[in-house]
Amino acid sequence: MQHLRRFLSVLLVLLFVTQTTTYVSAAEPINEARDIIRKYYVEDVPDWVLNKPTIKEITKYLDPYSVYMTVEEFKEFTNAIENQFVGIGVMIEEDPRGVKILTVYPGSPAERAGIQTGDVITNINGQALAGESVQTVISSLSGEEKTPVTLTYLRPDTGQSFTQTLVREVIQLQNVEYEMLGGNIGYVRLNSFALDSAKDISAAIRKLKGAKGWIFDLRDNGGGYVSAAQEVEGFFPNVTKAFQLRDKSNKSYVFNAIPQPVKFTAPVHILINGYSASASEMVAASVKEQKGAVLYGQNSFGKGSMQSFFQLSDKSVLKLTTAKFFSPKGVQIHHVGVAPNVKTAEGEELLVSHHDQLIRLIRGYKKLPALQNVPVNKTFTIKMNMKMNWTGITASDVQLIQLGGKEVPVDVQALDEKTIKITPKQNLQSKGKYLLIVHPKWKAQNTRQMKQGIYLDVTVN
């Protein structure tokens, strides 16, 4: 028991365990792997599996998350968790002529070379890319750090073609994204449970000071370090327990969330979808159970198993499922997933959550019939049922907020004693959804104050 507790402590802090047993032949790590699997794999493994001649053949008979990695493969694996890769710093999609640049990451070799969004890479190191898959091209763009790669790319806007040699670098993607949405709703997205996640989320919360509600986005987040999940749970109000763990012996251990110096202030929504997995599900299940947030989206992936990493004598690594995790009260996650409190259509998670946060702030306002399929240059006319005193009317009395986005600036003009015209200062986004709010700040000509504000949903054609 004492050894198991020491092992779990290391597992939860670093998710990395170094095997220290001495073997006669370090050139044969398969014996080390067999011993580790016997001791730590979450289920008993029969001898006919352990007697397979290679580690990779043994892991084929274990669960899908137990794998054997070379030193280089393990480096790539950890880089993925930390949102790092070696390349030129672009996001691409297929194009009949090669691959089209969707994003050029700031500070990357591609940006310094002048490559732009919309450019089409047609050749890499002299090889034509027409008809090649994105995966094949990614392999060609990737490689060892500080190695050269020669690109030929087309700029469709001008018809110009360029050939340049770039040097591959380690590209660090932003793991935590944040912004203040319209209506002062703080939005924080976590792409992976990396070692610095808590630090980055703390910075985001501080920079979004004054938020009247929060949306924490875990969509498409495939997990990461367990210790990072414990830290992230510490940001949510009333959440003190992180998860329940059951090891090979099926004994249960409940682990605590790690309190953070700053927290999300209620109310908080968490967004999940079918690609929210592992550590994302650990956080979602725990926070839901302790009522620290309301979950929006679809049922999560259903990976409730925990892996540990064992470095063998040749520096290769065995990633092994050593336990299964549950919600703090023991609700199963593996092969089940976490169900949202509010189910939404795919792709609508943020819009519905933002809408609900805004409606909460204007509780008591009167809802008017929705406007559907309005043009992008729509102007709005609001007619009251009594004569109004429009003196001092200002644009701040009206809000037009794009759901999932920012507030749209408007001009407000009185047309007559009962009617005002609201004109957005920019075109609305095609297919976008908006909330139009008129606050009760005006008086009727008989000096009676408006009793309640009004709002309506707007969908653009």
UniProtKB/TrEMBL annotation:
Signal peptide extent: 1-26
Q: A single Pfam family, by name?
A: Peptidase_S41
Might you name a Gene Ontology BP term for this protein?
signal transduction
PANTHER family assigned: CARBOXY-TERMINAL PROCESSING PROTEASE CTPA, TAIL-SPECIFIC PROTEASE
Q: Which PROSITE patterns match?
A: PDZ (PS50106)
UniProt name for this protein = Carboxyl-terminal processing protease
Q: Which GO terms describe its molecular function?
A: endopeptidase activity; serine-type peptidase activity
Family assignment from sequence similarity: Belongs to the peptidase S41A family.
Domain PDZ as annotated: residue spans: 70-141
